[in-house]
Design brief:
Blueprint lengths: L34 H11 L4 H6 L3 E2 L5 E2 L2 E2 L1 H7 L6 E2 L10 H18 L7 E4 L16 H6 L3 H17 L4 E2 L23 H16 L10 E5 L9 H8 L1 H9 L4 E4 L3 E2 L2 E2 L4 H11 L5 E2 L5 H6 L8 H11 L14 H6 L5 H17 L19 H14 L1 E5 L12 E5 L15 H7 L15 H9 L4 E5 L10 E3 L6 H12 L7 H9 L3 E7 L9 E3 L8 H10 L4 E6 L15 E6 L5 H10 L12 E2 L18 E3 L10 E7 L3 E3 L5 E9 L5 E11 L10 E10 L4 E8 L6 E3 L2 E4 L2 E8 L7 E8 L3 E3 L8 E5 L1
Parallel strand pairs: 1-4, 4-5, 5-6, 7-8, 8-11, 13-14, 13-16, 16-18, 18-19, 23-31
Antiparallel strand pairs: 2-3, 9-10, 12-19, 15-17, 20-21, 22-24, 24-27, 25-26, 25-30, 27-33, 28-29, 29-32, 30-31
Helix pairs in contact: 1-14, 6-7, 6-15, 7-9, 15-21, 17-21
Length: about 800
């Protein structure tokens, strides 16, 4: 992992406890604008009418420009006569082939550049957390699974492939990544997150952005960090908010040059985020130093009037959001269209509007849209080439967590004649694809079907057949359904019953009806049971509120019936969240958490089951034992709520030993860094990879630091019998705490710990940090540097 120290303005040395940062190695984010860009934008704006300016801070859905499946110039002239800022989610609402999509983008841009007065191209944006959300594109595991790989280099490779696909059709902007820190499995969008830890989330977020965006906006895809800030969290504690929930957003802004931020649907101190001056101006642009553009989450501005009832009209809601610092309204004009009236009524000034327009045009300049742009790549397009499928396969293998194994895995294929593969998710693509994949969006949001062969989605049954061939008889039967009426409610402020009902119909119409008797009959004839249970895309995701977090419907009862047969049960769980296994954890032979593993799910799971792949993933979340809705946060030391499995936990088919711990006994707070190292050895018979984790706890009882915090990690490949040394270069500034409106590093004694999870830490040692307490204006260090030597 690369060392990432974050830029800050020079600080004057005004007291004994205020330190200059002249000794730091600093990465300086590039400014959003330059004098040359400002002059160019000012020149454009000098000729713009009010209507043309407002058009540049709005989006429109592409479906509004389509008639009989084709772009309508008449509709363009009616809907976007003055141009437009963004074309919203331009691919996930269509079933176009790649070449059709590219040509559609070119047609829209041609209209804008030839038929409007200003001739300004639009930004085309889409979702990208699991790959480019469009038909035929590679579908990676959901982010919660990717985080369990603890492999930022893999995240970069995956998002780089997404960038190439998006650029091939002329896209230039993504509403990704999602960097909310989530600490409850009950939150329906937890699957989109990187888990509960701010350090791991920040690391994966920076890696994702570097692959997607790169170093140059004109050749990359502009990334958007969302949702700013504290979405999905239950906290009113300022210290937690700044230290934990802001950290991932701040990291990608400062360390990965993100210039687009999306405020969340939530409220900060009772004020909706999208219309919150303190959040967007004082904190985001002030304390964090952000200088880019803010874009609303879909319909969040009109929610200020509707859902939140904090505005008396859509016009007032738009004025509130724009004044608070939200620049662009997505996905369609609904509140900003009233801005001309607001100007006439002195509700807002032109200066406020001009500021937002200037940011919108600046982004277009940085994306290269005003410099003879070329939209897409000519010729045939392949969104899922073999190289991408290999990336998806590797990502799935590294995201699947082995939670329990009594020795039955890997399967001893030579000793097995018959396998009973049962469960509603055993031969089903809907259990493999998370929210904001193309397949989920076209099904759930647009009520259409998708082609499971574009790209090819490999089910668990198909994967086992691919790997086992004729060696073993595989008997498949669903045995039970998910739930009826699928145990989900919907947010009435967002989607109606028609969309939800259509999505449900699309899913249920494409699976066989379960037959319990047939399932139990084939189980009796089999040597081992593989029960694939859990959720589908209908049961987890935005606006989908489940009644609990147990296995849905009658799945628990079905698993219990399988256990009663006396045959060994391997429980495989797919879905977007942790689902309870407490009823039968001690009775299952093995338990695997597969999340939503993407297009190569079946092949990856099969290879893990039969031992072609050694599982390496470790939990990015704590795994609950019950349905308590109290947040489960390892940083508090599991004092109140005990987990089924702790953060950082994951089993392997081999064993690892830690030894030779080394660290200094003391250091100075003004030191750049100090070194912590250990040896890790593969003591088992199978090659593997261990994720070495570094934590810190305060030794001083008076400290206000959390009980334990992750401060570094390294994924280490180890052949059987191989030993390597892992070295962490740690900065004292990583121990910053937010107190009284400032960042402080306190002298004292800290215990650093190394091991395999947050509770399995065999190597520990104290270090005394000496010197005067530091007070810093900004968080300026996020990550330790790690290295591996033979």
């Amino acid at each position: 992992m690369k060392k990432l120290f974050i830029a800050m303005l020079p600080i004057l040395l005004f007291s004994c406890n205020k330190i200059q940062q002249t000794d730091m190695t600093i990465v300086t984010p590039k400014p959003f604008s330059t004098p040359e860009i400002e002059a160019r934008v000012d020149s454009i704006m000098a000729t713009m009418t009010l209507e043309e300016k407002i058009a540049q801070i709005q989006g429109i859905r592409p479906t509004e420009l389509i008639v009989d499946g084709k772009l309508s110039i008449e509709m363009c002239r009616e809907k976007i006569p003055n141009g437009i800022g963004h074309i919203s989610q331009f691919s996930s609402s269509f079933t176009m082939e790649p070449e059709e999509l590219r040509d559609f983008v070119r047609e829209v841009q041609h209209y804008l550049m030839t038929d409007t007065r200003l001739k300004l191209p639009a930004v085309f944006h889409e979702e990208a957390i699991t790959g480019f959300s469009t038909k035929g594109a590679t579908t990676f595991p959901q982010q919660i699974g990717i985080a369990c790989s603890w492999n930022p280099e893999m995240a970069t490779r995956n998002s780089l492939s997404t960038r190439k696909n998006m650029k091939a059709v002329g896209a230039n902007y993504a509403l990704s990544p999602m960097l909310d820190v989530i600490r409850t499995a009950h939150w329906p969008r937890i699957e989109e997150s990187y888990g509960e830890d701010p350090y791991l989330t920040s690391t994966m977020g920076v890696a994702f952005v570097k692959g997607l965006q790169g170093d140059d906006f004109s050749t990359g895809i502009a990334a958007t960090t969302k949702h700013f800030a504290g979405y999905g969290a239950n906290t009113t504690n300022e210290k937690d908010f700044f230290e934990d929930y802001l950290m991932p957003h701040e990291a990608v802004i400062k360390a990965a040059n993100v210039k687009s931020v999306m405020p969340s649907y939530a409220a900060y101190k009772g004020v909706p985020d999208v219309a919150n001056n303190e959040l967007l101006n004082e904190i985001l642009r002030g304390k964090l130093g952000f200088d880019g553009i803010t874009v609303s989450d879909y319909h969040s501005i009109d929610h200020v009037h509707g859902k939140w009832e904090q505005a008396d009209s859509y016009k007032t809601a738009g004025v509130m959001a724009l004044k608070a610092g939200n620049d662009l309204e997505l996905p369609v004009p609904k509140t900003y269209e009233f801005l001309p009236e607001a100007i006439d009524e002195s509700m807002i000034t032109m200066d406020v509007i001009n500021t937002a327009v200037k940011r919108s045009l600046t982004m277009k300049v940085k994306l290269g849209l005003l410099d003879n742009p070329v939209f897409g790549v000519d010729g045939d397009l392949d969104f899922d080439p073999p190289t991408n499928r290999k990336l998806a396969y590797d990502a799935a293998c590294q995201s699947i967590v082995l939670l329990k194994n009594n020795g039955i895995l890997p399967l001893k294929v030579n000793d097995i004649k018959n396998i009973a593969l049962v469960g509603p998710n055993s031969d089903n693509v809907f259990c493999l694809l998370g929210d904001y994949t193309y397949q989920s969006m076209i099904t759930y949001f647009w009520g259409q079907t998708f082609d499971p062969n574009s790209p090819k989605i490999v089910t668990v049954l198909e994967g086992l057949k691919n790997k086992l061939g004729d060696k073993v008889n595989i008997h498949n039967e669903r045995g039970c359904d998910w739930a009826e009426p699928l145990g989900t409610t919907i947010d009435p402020n967002s989607y109606g019953d028609s969309e939800l009902g259509t999505a449900k119909k699309n899913i249920l119409s494409r699976v066989a009806q379960p037959n319990l008797e047939n399932a139990l009959s084939m189980v009796g004839k089999s040597d081992v049971i593989i029960a694939v249970m859990g959720e589908n895309t209908y049961l987890c995701g935005e606006n989908r509120e489940r009644e609990g977090i147990r296995l849905p419907g009658e799945q628990e009862l079905f698993v219990e019936k399988l256990i009663e047969t006396g045959k060994p049960v391997i429980l495989v769980i797919t879905g977007g969240r942790q689902q309870l296994v407490d009823k039968f954890e001690d009775k299952c032979a093995a338990i695997i958490q597969a999340w939503f593993p993407g297009e190569e799910a079946g092949n990856a799971l099969a290879d893990i089951l039969v031992g072609n792949v050694n599982p390496t993933a470790k939990l990015c979340v704590s795994y609950p034992k019950d349905e308590s809705k109290e947040e489960l946060n390892y940083q508090h030391g599991y004092a109140k709520v005990k987990p089924q499995y702790p953060f950082g936990f994951g089993l392997s088919y081999t064993t690892y030993a830690y030894s030779n711990f080394s660290m200094p006994s003391n250091a100075n707070l003004i030191d750049n860094h100090f070194m912590i190292s250990c040896d890790v050895e593969n003591t088992g018979a199978m090659d593997g990879a261990e994720i070495v984790q570094l934590y810190v706890s305060p030794s001083d009882k008076t400290s206000t630091m959390d009980a334990i915090q992750l401060k570094g990690f390294k994924r280490v490949d180890l052949k059987s019998g191989e030993k390597k040394t892992v070295v962490f270069k740690v900065s004292p500034k990583q121990l910053m705490q937010y107190k009284d409106g400032n960042w402080k590093v306190e002298a004292g004694t800290y215990k650093f710990k190394i091991g395999a999870s947050c509770v399995d830490l065999p190597l520990q040692g104290d270090i005394v940090l000496q010197g005067d307490n530091l007070q810093l204006d900004n968080r300026n260090v996020f990550f330790s540097e790690s290295s591996v030597t033979p």
